[in-house]
Amino acid sequence: MGYLQLVGIILLGAAAASAQTESARISGRVTDPTDAVIAGAECKITNIETNVSTIATTNQDGIYVIPDLRPATYRLTIQKEGFRTVVQPSLQLYVQDALNENFRLALGPVSEISTVSAPLLQTDSAAVSTVVDQQVVHNMPLNGRSFQSLIGLTPGVVFTSQNLGQGQFSTNGQYVDSNYFMVDGVSANFATTTFGLGQTLGGALPAFTAQGGTNGLVSVDAMQEFRIQTSPYAAEYGRTPGAQISIVTKSGTNQFHGSVFDYLRNDIFDARNYFDRPPLPKPPLRQNDFGGTLGGPILKDKTFFFFSYEGLRLRQPQTDTEELLTVPAREAVAPVYQAILRALPLPDPNAPVIDPTCDNIQNPCRANLTIAYSNPSSLNATSLRIDHNLSSKVTLFARYNHAPSHDAMRYLEELGYDYLNVDTFTAGADILIAPTKVNDFRANWSRNNGTHSTSLTNFHGSEIPPTSALFPPASPYSPDKGQALVFFSGERFGKGRSIPMPNGSSILWIHFRGRSVCINSSSASITAG
Hints:
Layout: E1 2-14, E2 24-31, E3 42-47, E4 53-57, E5 63-69, E6 72-79, E7 85-93, E8 98-100, E9 103-104, E10 113-115, E11 128-133, H1 134-139, H2 148-151, E12 157-159, E13 169-171, E14 180-183, E15 186-187, E16 223-231, E17 244-249, E18 257-266, E19 286-299, E20 303-325, H3 327-331, H4 335-341, E21 366-389, E22 394-411, E23 414-434, E24 437-456, H5 467-470, H6 490-493, E25 497-500, E26 507-512, E27 515-520, E28 523-528
Parallel strand pairs: 2-8, 2-9, 7-10, 14-17
Antiparallel strand pairs: 1-24, 2-5, 3-4, 3-6, 6-7, 11-16, 12-13, 14-15, 16-17, 18-19, 19-20, 20-21, 21-22, 22-23, 23-24, 25-28, 26-27, 27-28
């Protein structure tokens, strides 16, 4: 299944009106010592890391507005002939900030500089929000290098059970599928599931990995910061009533920066769990989350790049105990059905029968199988971002992200795989048309393909039955006509699941713990017994 999204958004209007993007802005009033407004004062803001500047001037009311600023650390300089220059050397702007700062210029030559460092307040919005930046990411433990746990730090957010829906958390009591994710100003709600569209059809869920992590959207090492708004946010965020999560990815700077990492877990560092008692072997645990980043200039002060890769190789340990038919019980079955029964694993060789009164006629003999194994999964997330400053009024960027992942789950002889493949391409342009008008453009192409496959395997003595045993030559069905093979797993599929197998008319019932299998000429019905 796939979900394809193509979005192009142009927002044109007064700079004082916020757009639904990741950009920040700063505004305020400039006055003289008598509180009279100063018109025509130059306000220059410079990104310290890229040395890119934006210049605005105060209007007749002494008001300046500098919109469409990428979250970063800036230097703000305000000057006017006949007044001393005011400099704020370290101004930190976060994602979707709308800050207000007023300045009073003292009389004197413009060559004299006054430095201010007062903290800025956001007075233009009553929204309750939390910003999570790289400092928080570096100092908080993250399970699986996914930032869901950081979302849980926000007041009003509660992680929920899967029984409440396909989402992962609820915000202020809203439905779990009502949270809205954005990456670099475009929607990230284009998920698909491997068992049906359901809630994903209307863009209700973000495109997480097969393991359920945010790494498919952006690796934490490629994420600059994110803001989560819970209430009462402005109307432009009204698509869903839950949390609004806006994520900003990193871009390159005038300096080359990079990182290499490998986080690991291994069973040699862990004690046995309660169920892995000798002589059972301890199931292997392997978790390697590795990768790196590299960013820097292509053309100094003009063009920058940022590359990120993250790989995950995981083997999750499992311990299972099942009641299975003994070898004599299988041999007592009619030969035509023995190939099917051999698809089930054998019980432990020395395990005693559970019911000593069994006769393999009306009461088949069963014994326990206790086994340890590991479920494999993987992730490969690669992204590349290019930023270019066309002029002091036009900035461009483009980002591509490719994140295939898979997750496997074994149920004895059955091995099921979930495959998810996330691809996104986003391009944007910020154009300062006038001091009070800005054009904010975003275009996005997103695709998320999901597939699920389940197959029988040779597991602890089980043998994959030949196709001829499942689809006899006289049958009008064949594997390429969508007819499923026989699955001995009624607990997972629920009561009344039938798999067509046309042939004769004889009936055989086989009972074992938790499952009842009826094999006859026209169906193999699997129910929870």
